[in-house]
């Protein structure tokens, strides 16, 4: 077991779950990850293994067939999975955001219908907020839903759906009518639960998933667009049953997502450190292993410290959310620090490998292409800084 990234205060059940996931990663993911990634191949066998372990129901309450575990347990599992292959952690992340949103905000009928099937992995979730022209400006959403009797008619284009092709349930944020004068745009948005067939092309009348977006890294998992053209959705598939609450529901889910990204950053950084420290002891220059050169030891010291710091902040953010307290400050800090440190640790491991790091035969080459996605996912560093800065001013506001 790694000396780094240990977590104090875990229960016996949490330790057993983590041990099981760690063994699965070492035996079933690491040996095949790079090969599958180079082929951009969906890891079907790995996903089936995760279903057998019950990980798709990890945070779903026991009354709906899940394991009823905490966000901390989930984040620590994600950290282990990302250490093996970050794309696999992405497959379960959006699924869990949707399951979390259903648990927190869904009607009882929606919970009873979706959550037991999601716990088994029979229904797989995707999360859709972004659009081609808006980036992090959620208030600029143009996808629109108009009420028509007992249905809504949805039109618009969504972007960057993880699991867009393989999912069978997508939580989609749309504008529900034009905001009235004096009403902020975010108070006129609604989350819709859209069921669809897996695959590409027209996956239900009025809904098209064009195909996979070709990416620099984060391969294997399918990232897609989503196009709605006269898509008709029953009114009972509005999350929570009431319109115009979608922005708050999505932001609640994004907080979970930011803890997840922090966990992924911690996991990828830890793997990069493992690769770097191992190679530094194998590679010889000037008659001795490069690990004995002070310059490399300094690099390893910085890398190990960053791994430890990212893990600690991720754990803190998860525990804050589990307590029921507001955690946007902690989640923003954890996501920002872990993604930046991940990039730096991966680059240092890449440098330690020298020319071999540029070869696709070495695992570090894959990590070098994967790390940049964490700088963008669930909000850029600049967005995190805005959130952090505003929250700090709230906490430390002086008297006028």
Q: Can you describe this structure?
A:
It is a single chain. The chain is of the alpha+beta class and 400 residues long. It has ten helices and ten strands. The protein has helices spanning 12-39, 44-53, 71-84, 86-105, 108-120, 246-282, 294-322, 328-353, 363-374, 381-395; strands spanning 125-128, 144-148, 151-162, 169-175, 189-195, 201-204, 207-209, 223-234, 284-285, 288-289. A five-stranded antiparallel beta sheet has the order 2-3-8-7-6, covered by helices on one side. α3 (71-84) crosses α6, α3 runs antiparallel to α7 and α4 runs antiparallel to α5 (108-120). It is globular. 48% of the residues are buried. The mean pLDDT is 93.
Fold topology:
Blueprint: H1 12-39, H2 44-53, H3 71-84, H4 86-105, H5 108-120, E1 125-128, E2 144-148, E3 151-162, E4 169-175, E5 189-195, E6 201-204, E7 207-209, E8 223-234, H6 246-282, E9 284-285, E10 288-289, H7 294-322, H8 328-353, H9 363-374, H10 381-395
């Amino acid at each position: 077991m790694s000396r780094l990234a240990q977590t104090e205060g875990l229960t016996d059940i949490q330790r057993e779950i983590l041990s099981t996931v760690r063994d699965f990663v070492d035996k079933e993911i690491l040996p095949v990850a790079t090969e599958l990634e180079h082929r951009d191949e969906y890891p079907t066998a790995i996903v089936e293994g995760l279903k057998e372990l019950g990980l798709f129901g990890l945070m779903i309450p026991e009354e709906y067939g899940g394991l009823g575990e905490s966000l901390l347990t989930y984040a620590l599992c994600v950290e282990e999975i990302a250490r093996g292959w970050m794309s696999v952690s992405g497959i379960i992340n959006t699924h869990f955001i949707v399951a979390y949103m259903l648990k927190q905000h869904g009607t009882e009928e929606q919970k009873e219908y979706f959550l037991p099937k999601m716990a088994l992995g029979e229904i797989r979730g995707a999360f859709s907020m972004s659009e081609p022209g808006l980036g992090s400006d959620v208030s600029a959403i143009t996808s629109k839903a108009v009420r028509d009797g007992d249905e809504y008619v949805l039109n618009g284009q969504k972007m960057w759906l993880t699991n867009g092709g393989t999912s069978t349930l997508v939580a989609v944020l749309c504008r529900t009518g034009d905001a009235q004068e004096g009403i902020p745009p975010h108070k006129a948005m609604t989350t819709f639960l859209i069921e669809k067939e897996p695959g590409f092309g027209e996956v239900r009348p009025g809904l098209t998933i064009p195909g996979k977006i070709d990416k620099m890294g984060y391969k294997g998992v399918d990232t897609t667009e989503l196009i709605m053209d006269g898509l008709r959705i029953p009114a009972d598939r509005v999350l929570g049953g009431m319109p115009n609450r979608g922005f708050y529901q999505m932001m609640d889910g994004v907080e979970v997502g930011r803890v997840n990204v922090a966990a992924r950053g911690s996991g990828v950084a830890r793997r990069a450190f493992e690769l770097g420290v191992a190679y530094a002891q194998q590679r010889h220059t000037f008659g001795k292993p490069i690990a004995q050169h002070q310059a490399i030891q300094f690099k390893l010291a910085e890398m190990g410290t960053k791994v430890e710091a990212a893990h600690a902040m991720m754990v803190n953010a998860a525990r804050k959310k589990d307590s029921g307290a507001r955690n946007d400050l902690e989640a923003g800090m954890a996501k920002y620090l872990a993604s930046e440190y991940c990039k730096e640790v991966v680059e240092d491991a890449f440098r330690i490998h020298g020319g071999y790091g540029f070869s696709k035969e070495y695992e570090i080459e894959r990590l070098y292409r994967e790390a940049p996605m964490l700088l963008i996912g669930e909000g850029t560093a600049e967005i995190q800084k805005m959130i952090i800065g505003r929250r700090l001013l709230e906490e430390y506001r002086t008297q006028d």
